[in-house]
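Submission sheet (multi-component)
Chains listed below:
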Amino acid sequence: MGLLQPESGLLFWMTLAFGVVFIVLARYGFPIIVKAIESRKEYIDSSLDAAREAEQKCATLEARSREIVNEAEVRRNEILREADNERKQILSDARQKAESEGECLLEKARRQAESERAAILDDAKHEIATLAVAITERMLREELRDRDAQTQLASRLMEELDPKNRKTWTPD
Amino acid sequence: MRKTFANIVVLLALLLALLLPALPMRAAAQEAPEQTTAVQAGREQEGTGQKGAVQEGDLDIKQLVLGHLGDSYEWHITSTGNGEWSIPLPVIIHSPTSGWHCFSSARLREGAEYEGLRIAAQGDHAGKIVERQADGSDLRPLDLSLTKTAAALLLNSVVVLCLVLGTARWYRRHKATERAPKGFVALFEMLVSGILDSVIKPCVGPNYRKFAPYLLTAFFFIFVNNLMGLIPFFPGGANVTGNIAVTFILALATFLAVNLFGTKHYWKDILWPDVPVWLKAFPLMPLIELVGIFTKPFALMIRLFANMMAGHAVILSLTCVIFATVGMGAAVNGSMSAVSVLFSIFMYCLELLVAFLQAYVFTMLSAVFIGLAQERPGKHAAEGPADNH
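Outcome: structure written.
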């Protein structure tokens, strides 16, 4: 069983070789590599975290800006609507005012016209009455020189004044 | 507690599963004695051993495979028509009678004797250097020769050192927070961080920084030796991790790492575990646990050794099929050669996987054992309530 029996020489060389390799590598080899690998891993992890955080911040900022834009839009629409309403209000107010004023003016004008018409009528009536009196006076002065004519006239007048015959003329 | 138990059960299942590939190897190992006797018989008949056998066209495959799996005093490269090409290696011997000897192994070629030392052709120390004593008996002196396996071991150690120190140099020159490495350093970093994240951190626990250098060294040492062993020509090809002395030292290192740095809680769990008193007053459980301390690294040793040796043995045997069928005619030899090459390709792919897997398994189990020895009672208390759910 030569294969299963460790040779003393090989044991010595293996101890020496493995011992030297282990000591050298444990001192100058692996700690450096392990440290470097781990620090890189840490760096990558922290960078990823930072990136994720930045992304999140960016997303919230974007959301915030969108919110602001939306708000502004809503506000603008509101303002526009308000302005529109106000304009309409003003217009309708103005129209109403104009209407009422116009009506007022019309009323006034109508009343004035009425009163003027009444005055004119009064005047006309007055004039007519004066004319009538004057004419009557002249006519009476002409006509009432004789007695016949006076009675003739009086009867005619009487006839005329009779309500049955009152068609053509009314003194009032 | 239940979690720990489940861990141990999983571990045991894993151990059994990993030992499965070793079963055919044990069969092969059992063949070994009868095989050596065959070699001895052959040597007795022919007197010159392997060379004579090759010259006569009668290939002794078992001897060839075992000769590769074992060790030798020179590094055989190839045989050409002009003879053997091999690199002589230094022989270092301390004999109790004649003191230190140090010379090239070329002086011992073909059974030659030098300063009273020769390579034994037969007997208990066949293939090893023995010293002829005054009374004619052979004595095996303290043999610190730089054999083929030892030389390959040193070469591979230099490769590991270059790989790791080269990578460490890059990291010393660059800030870790700058750019990621490219090329070889990136590959190496991938391996290191893979082992670190998937094996060392979860298995060892919070104290992993202390043990990471050892576990990583063990991984890359085994991995490089495994891969170098798969290279079929000179700088590689030596069966290093398939040698029991090498895996013994590796397992010993894990044993020391586990037990020298074990916590008080670990030793309490071994000597006075949480079981009914009658199980530990009559020290059944402590005994089992104490045996367990040694069986764990022993399993590590045997697993690596058997797996790597089996791989080498299978590949060599498949290659030998070509030469073994030479005498059976061109048709058989040709078809068997094709079969041999196809199977060898398959085995090489498998062995590439095994080379990584065995290094990984050794590292992972070492990490698990270290982690189990790093357990603290506080951790148990924290786990307790969670286990009740």
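Remark: The longest helix of chain A spans residues 8-143.
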